[in-house]
Design goal:
The complex is a heterodimer.
Chain A: E1 6-7, H1 13-40, H2 55-70, H3 72-78, H4 89-109, H5 117-122, H6 129-152, H7 160-183, H8 196-222, H9 229-259, H10 264-273, H11 276-297, H12 306-333, E2 342-347, H13 364-387, E3 391-392, H14 397-400
Antiparallel strand pairs in A: 1-3
Chain B: H1 2-29, E1 54-59, H2 69-77, H3 91-97, E2 102-109, E3 115-121, H4 129-133, E4 139-141, E5 147-149, H5 159-163, E6 170-171, E7 190-191, H6 197-200, H7 208-212, E8 218-222, H8 229-236, E9 239-240, E10 252-255
Classes of the chains: A mainly alpha, B alpha+beta.
The complex binds iron/sulfur cluster (2 copies).
């Protein structure tokens, strides 16, 4: 294997600034949407006392989950010693940080009192998994930053492996923590499942890798760096395997739910009668998010084409957003069973009268806030690769693969 | 753990002290407000402790279909009726977004078809999930069993609303124009039934809903005192907790469901 050299992103200036301008505009629009929501209060959103977490949470959780997954590429190189992945590690670390920051900002800006963030940082309730998550997130950013430093500063190279292992362990804890946010909600039928945490880990693998692949192909393409077929094939196969694993967990999750009688109603809601949630589940999560990308990635011809791989990765992202939408919002829309054995016939507070789902229609400002978080993550990533040496000069097959016969 | 309880008791006292002036003033300005008060009502001077546990027994057989008295009384007592629908909000949306501490629920037994009405509110769990999940500790349980939100440390994350099995909490979605003294309120915070804590802290031992219910469906009092009306009633009738399977040991109990 040849020595790897890293170089700043060489996209030509007009395109670079154009790209930044577009992303910055999306961030700004998201910012204005937030100001509007904060000024007016949450009544301008689709959120209510029944659906308390809306579209911003979908984006925020997706980004946070994807962030830990983006670090995977680096982990495969340093923790599992796969040489081919070594040169990919820097971008992987960078994206882990930027995606997490994007997600956290959305989460914070959707608080009822974002200005009290300082309270959240200083007053803790250690029983709350949410409070633990604040530590997990901040720690993750710090550890990955150190990890990047050990990779980029030659004198610190020796520590890279150790920090890499720490970062890997930390990211598992982080995703488990994010998944557990739902696991702790004992009263809600869709959430109270032990399988939630491992399912989030496997989702993070897929969503993080999909975003990583997209950024990698885009940056290499725009400044004409060599990007070998072998490497791409490896990554896309890995993505396919991760998506297949989500598929497996999805099936197991719903089968175990169907096994317990008390969850039948919830299953019927998601799988059959839930209207928009049922559609989002089957079309978004299953068809577009899993079947279609697997079909592309494992297809002997399509799976070789960069364009098709790009589409597959985009579909995985779309499927991921759908999956989180179904989990977060569908899980709330399904009325809690407060009076088992009874039917609520009237209520002054929407307690699932006659089993009816709670109503939520996402509003534009919420969506813009979420999108703003996405754009912010990409914006920081692109600035990062432009001013610092995150990207290898070449990832052609003879560089990454020691056995490549050139 | 005891340290935490002390801390909470302390916090409650500090809060209480800051609020007390306002309430006392209100007593002077409008003595009629406390017309129902017992003769020796006086502001509490000691920090709350666990020698009392406030609770309720609701006799659903007395709860009349179509009656809204407790809900109206609570709305009035806690200023919920003073909230104005934001301009531009649809009636339907506002109805889902406005806070509600107590509500009337009508149930039909799936087997017998028998219909019951009952008021639902925060059940003042002994092991409240809303307190467990709150990242800042704003959602807290006082030593005397009242579960409430500290409006000054609530960051509005709404995790407690996700965790509450009884859908008991409300988020303030809109700007608040009129701020009642007894119930501090602000946009972006969560609140729920606090058993009229301002009354209890001023030496009264009734809640607005109990007082309003002339059918006697709500019995309120100290669950630890065997002589209290609520303990006596609990001893007499078989009462249940809603979602008893969650083992939260609720402070609000129901008979005849
Ligand atoms: S009923 Fe809900 S809000 Fe009240 S103490 Fe229990 S969990 Fe908390
Ligand atoms: S909304 Fe307020 S009281 Fe509820 S969990 Fe968040 S910080 Fe605690």
């Amino acid at each position: 294997m040849k020595k790897i050299h890293y170089r700043e992103w060489g996209i030509d200036s007009p395109r670079y600034w154009g790209l930044l301008a577009v992303l910055a505009a999306i961030v700004a629009i998201g910012g204005f949407a937030t100001l509007f929501m904060e000024h007016e209060g949450h009544w301008v959103t689709g959120m209510t006392n029944q659906i308390v977490w809306g579209t911003p949470h979908v984006f925020a959780i997706f980004l946070i989950v994807a962030a830990s997954g983006a670090l995977n590429v680096a982990s495969i190189g340093s923790v599992f010693g796969q040489k081919m992945y070594k040169p990919l590690a820097r971008l992987s670390g960078l994206m882990a940080i930027t995606l997490l920051v994007g997600g956290l900002i959305v989460l914070v800006l959707d608080l009822g009192q974002p200005s009290r963030l300082i309270v959240a940082m200083t007053t803790y309730n250690f029983k709350s998994i949410f409070a633990w998550n604040i530590y997990l997130y901040v720690g993750f950013i710090a550890i990955v930053a150190v990890y990047l430093f050990t990779m980029m500063e030659r004198k610190a190279n020796d520590y890279s492996k150790g920090v890499g292992v720490l970062a890997f362990v930390w990211r598992l804890a982080l995703t488990t923590g994010t998944g557990s946010i739902f696991g702790f909600l004992v009263a809600r039928q869709g959430y109270d499942a032990a399988i939630m945490a491992p399912m989030f880990i496997i989702m993070s693998f897929a969503y993080g890798l999909a975003l990583y692949l997209l950024v990698l192909m885009f940056t290499f393409n725009t400044d004409s760096r060599p990007l070998g077929d072998k490497l791409i094939r490896r990554l896309k196969n890995l993505l396919g395997v991760f998506v297949a694993a989500i598929f497996y967990f999805t099936v197991v999750y719903h089968l175990t739910n169907l096994y317990g009688t008390e969850n039948h109603a919830y299953e019927a809601f998601i799988l059959r009668d839930g209207g928009v949630y049922t559609w989002t589940f089957w079309i978004g999560w299953v068809l577009l998010g899993m079947i279609a990308p697997m079909g592309i990635l494992f297809h002997p011809a399509l799976g070789m084409q960069r364009g098709a791989i790009t589409i597959a990765a985009l579909l995985v992202v779309l499927g991921g957003l759908s999956a989180i939408y179904v989990i977060v919002i569908g899980g709330q829309a399904f009325p809690m069973s407060m009076f088992p054995g009874y039917t609520v016939v009237e209520s002054g507070y929407y307690d699932g009268v006659n089993g009816m789902a709670r109503h939520y229609s996402p509003s534009l400002p919420e969506f813009l806030l979420g999108l703003g978080g996405f754009a912010l993550a990409l914006l920081v990533t692109f600035i990062g690769v432009r001013i610092m040496q995150f990207l290898p000069s070449s990832l052609s097959d003879d560089v990454t693969d020691p056995h490549h016969a050139s | 753990m005891s340290q935490q309880t002390d801390h909470l008791a302390d916090k409650a006292r500090r809060q209480f002290l800051t609020k007390a002036t306002g309430v006392a003033a209100a007593t002077v300005v409008a003595p009629g407000v406390f017309l129902h008060s017992v003769g020796n009502a006086a502001p509490r001077e000691e920090p709350v402790n666990d020698s009392v546990r406030w609770g309720m027994l609701i006799d659903t057989s007395k709860c009349a279909d179509g009656c809204n008295d407790c809900v109206a009384a609570c709305d009035k007592e806690n200023g919920l009726d003073q909230l104005i629908k934001p301009e531009g909000a649809s009636e339907e949306q506002w109805d889902m977004q406005r806070p509600r501490w107590i509500r009337s629920v009508k149930l039909k037994n799936n087997l017998t078809g028998r219909v019951t009405t009952l008021p639902m509110m925060c059940q003042h769990c002994e092991h409240p999930p809303c307190v467990d999940v709150c990242p800042t500790g704003a959602s807290f349980r006082r030593a005397d069993g009242i579960v409430m939100v500290d409006r000054h440390t609530c960051i509005g994350c709404r995790y407690c609303m996700m965790a509450c099995p009884y859908n008991a909490r409300s988020f303030i979605h809109e700007n608040v124009q009129l701020k009642p003294t007894a119930t501090p309120r602000g946009k972006g915070c969560v609140e729920s039934c606090n058993l009229c804590v301002h009354r209890l802290d001023n030496g009264l031992n009734t809640t607005a809903c109990q007082e309003a219910c002339d059918k006697g469906a709500i019995v309120f009092g100290d669950l630890r005192d065997p002589e209290s009306a609520v303990s006596q009633a609990l001893a007499k009738y078989p009462a249940v907790q809603i979602r008893a399977d969650l083992k939260l040991n609720t402070g609000v109990r129901y008979t005849d469901v």
